[in-house]
Amino acid sequence: MPTTNQPIHEPHKIKTVRPIAFPNLEERKRNLSAARFNVHQLTPSQVTFDMVSLGTSAMTQEQLAGQLIGDEAYAGARNFETLNEVITRVLGHTYVCPTHNTLGAVKLLLRAFAKEGGSSLPSNARGRVDVHAPRGIEIKDARDRKDPVFTGNFDLDRLRSLIEESRPPFIGGQAFADGQHPFSLANLRAVRKLADSFGLRIVLDISRVIENAWYIQKHETGLSDRSIADLVLAISKTAHVILMDGAQDPRSNTGGFLATDNPADHEHFMNDVVVFEGLHTYGGMAGRTMEVLARGLSEMCDEVEVQWVMYQTERFCARLADGGVPVERGCDGAYIQADEFLAQKAEHSAHAVAAALYETSGVRAMAQGLVGRDAYLPVQIPRLAMTNTQLDQVADAIIALHGQRDRIPSLDTETKGEWHDQLRFRSVFADLDSFEFDCDPYIIHTLEPIARTTREQRLRAIREAGYNTFLLRSADVTIDLLTDSGTTAMSTKQWAAYDAAIPTPGTSDAYLDFVSVVKETYGYDHILPTHQGRAAEQILSEVMIRPGQLVPGNMYFTTTKLHQELAGGVFADVIVDEAHQPSSDFRWKGNIDLGKLEALVKEKGADGIAYISFELSVNMAGGQPVSMDNLREVYAYCSKHNIPVMFDATRAVENAYMIQKHDPRFHDAPVRDILREMMLYGDGCTVSGKKDYLINIGGLLAFKDNAEWAKASEAKIRVYEGGVRDGGLPSADLAAMAQGMREMVDDHYIRSRVEQAVRLASWLEAAGVPIVRPTGSHAVFLDAREFLSHLDQDEYPAQRLAAEIYVETGVRAMERGNVSKGRKPDGHNYRPQLELVRLTLPRRVYSDDHLRAVADGIVRLYERRESITGLRFTYEPAELRFFQGRFEPIS
């Protein structure tokens, strides 16, 4: 059934990303000059946002997986059988002829039905003039412009006249004609009736059919209760022949087909396809392309996804119109009226606007097709590939340019041509104000659908999980904020490195690259990969700790503390007092209190201290950073007393960004350089690579210059992990880790990552929800003690709050309080000062719209907080009880 509510966030999360470039003004000028002011000549690596929709969509993970299901058989490919079945099921036509794209389909169509010259073709679209005019076929405009909504309707009287005048070979129709004009289902059916009366076929281009179906569902009387899938099938079945561009609605990068229920027409197509395209069971497509196309066709009518696509489009067009930009709305973006945009009339106005837009912002919008159709500059949205924040800023860049339109220079033609891409221009660079983007530095490459659950389903799920969010099935979770560990969306560059890595039990190229990147990033000499962070913690603890020694640290972390204790050590918390005060605004809550440390050294002696366990961006304190001054002071003190300093550098890059942002001395320093200095003030580190390194598995143990510690650790790695040059990881994971380290120190990336947490915190604080202040780097922490102040700490308020957040919103969060801290030897709970729920933000996975929905749900919960009761254990493991423990509500 159709979804009538306005979407509140994407019905998917990000699976993989494609990093984008942010060329500065001088680079953009050089690029534009080399392109002779025709943005067609720019490459994607020179462009920040490429506002075109053909073949630029994000794919689903199922489509991406389909690339490896390709049956590259020359004849009788299984992928063609799959494609045929899907087209019959989704579009209702039995006979399918594959083509390499729609140009291939048009070629076969015209050979079957039209004479090569002297023909005319009535149509509601002008977009095919480009391919018909060179064949001597004239497009006769039959579009009715009277309906204010269905501007793509056929004028039935004119259509009848055109048929009677020229006896065309068929009637050409286009769903959402020229990207701007939808038709009604009633009008299409009337055209079918008229075509049948003259014995003519309707040939319908359905490349943008889901958008047209959405307009019918939204605006056509009596059809609001019909699903998108039903309407798509009805549109398709009304035509005698359909053709489709796989690079549009199915979100493939290429591909196309013709389909019909008429076996005689199909025979025409199949006889010609082997001459011009390829064998009739692949038609110029690779097997993988047919598989991706088939999966995209299966998915394209998903009601919620269609609503999101059209919501983004309508929102984008409205923002431009509200900003005073002369635009017409389209099904795939906005169409700028170029002549009206400019302060004065100019030849090639669309090119002038496009060149100025690129110069000021790095955004590319292109005039396409034959020269002479210059009225509009399409600004198309790559389907599902951009967030609303990015689209808002693209719109704002266009609005800013419109505000200085009187300064946009004209273009003088240097090289003429029939097609827009052939033109070259001379011009000058005007004094235009640049637009600076402050958004995620990537577009979406692949997406993963997320759960769509009801409150009743979520209540059943949390009961089955024993009110422990760790025990929920991910399939039941809409937005997963349990952890940022291993939940990253990797980049296309990381996947390329992963796939290219050559496996070997010996020394791999990936290992050498990994070592090189770590040394360059941290400045450490001894590099030991591990399968993940806790393995590095275990080895470090066993190598460095003698039984009975203290391990002072800036707040415990669960696995770190456990490994220290298993090695015979005793953890001692020496973090500053402000870290235990959620409402304190002290900026550097991760700092070590040097006075506390000195007292321990005096009490135990330096020999009684194994090492300092120094965490950067302290997780359990709320992602709180350590200041550069504190790093220097602690290291100076420990060096004087011969006490090693060992970093937990899992979120060191986030800490470096905090220093850049909040320490005026480092405002202009790149994060890369700040990180290198931070690591100078330690003797070694452990890293869970599943955080900063932007990967799904992997870890690191590294020492600055102590070969003895490294040798002892290597012996442990051989027993516990694998080879010392792989740490139990395949070379592919080492390669992905190395590339992730290159990406993690990009200033655009790390700013967008940390500032997302700041925005989430601001929405919660504005509604009075108690959170740990100031906001940390990787998460927002709710103060469960304050949120559920009517519950005793032994009723586990943080555990209950995490469970209630899931029931209310479908969001999975994590308890970090009494349950996590565990019990004392006497059996009583530790009752830590901090009783928190962590909303952890996976890297590059969720948009601001997702997080706004999270905030709104938590605010609703806060408004009924008095009705929430506590929990009691029904099953309590002896160690790390927060992973497997089960609870029930206290009546």
The CATH superfamily of the largest domain turns out to be Type I PLP-dependent aspartate aminotransferase-like (Major domain)
Give the strand line-up of the largest sheet.
4-10-9-8-7
Task: Indicate the low-confidence ranges by residue numbers.
Answer: none
Task: Give the proportion of residues in helices.
Answer: 40-55%
Number of contiguous helices: 32
Mean pLDDT score: 96
Percent of residues in beta strands: 5-15%
Largest sheet: 5 strands, mixed
How many β strands by DSSP? 32
Backbone CA Rg = 31 Å
Form type: elongated
Could you say which structural class the secondary elements and strand pairing correspond to? alpha/beta
CATH architecture group name of the largest domain: 3-Layer(aba) Sandwich
The span between the termini is 39 Å
InterPro entries: ArAA_b-elim_lyase/Thr_aldolase (IPR001597), PyrdxlP-dep_Trfase (IPR015424), PyrdxlP-dep_Trfase_major (IPR015421), PyrdxlP-dep_Trfase_small (IPR015422)
Family: Belongs to the beta-eliminating lyase family.
Protein name: Tryptophanase
Enzyme class: lyase
Descriptive notes:
One of its GO terms (molecular function) is tryptophanase activity. It holds the Pfam family Beta_elim_lyase. Keywords: Lyase, Pyridoxal phosphate. The chain is α/β, with parallel strands linked by helices. It has four domains: about 10-55 and about 305-440, Alpha-Beta Complex (Aspartate Aminotransferase, domain 1); about 60-300, 3-Layer(aba) Sandwich (Aspartate Aminotransferase, domain 2), CATH 3.40.640; about 455-480 and about 750-890, Aspartate Aminotransferase, domain 1 (Alpha-Beta Complex), CATH 3.90.1150.10; about 515-750, Type I PLP-dependent aspartate aminotransferase-like (Major domain) (Aspartate Aminotransferase, domain 2, 3-Layer(aba) Sandwich). It is about 40% helix and about 15% strand. The chain has a five-stranded mixed β-sheet, with helices on both faces. Strands 20-26-25-24-23 form a five-stranded mixed β-sheet, sandwiched between helices. Strand 23 (about 610-615), helix 22 and strand 24 form a beta-alpha-beta unit. The longest helix has 20 residues, at about 305-320. The protein is elongated, with a radius of gyration of 31 Å. The two termini are about 40 Å apart.
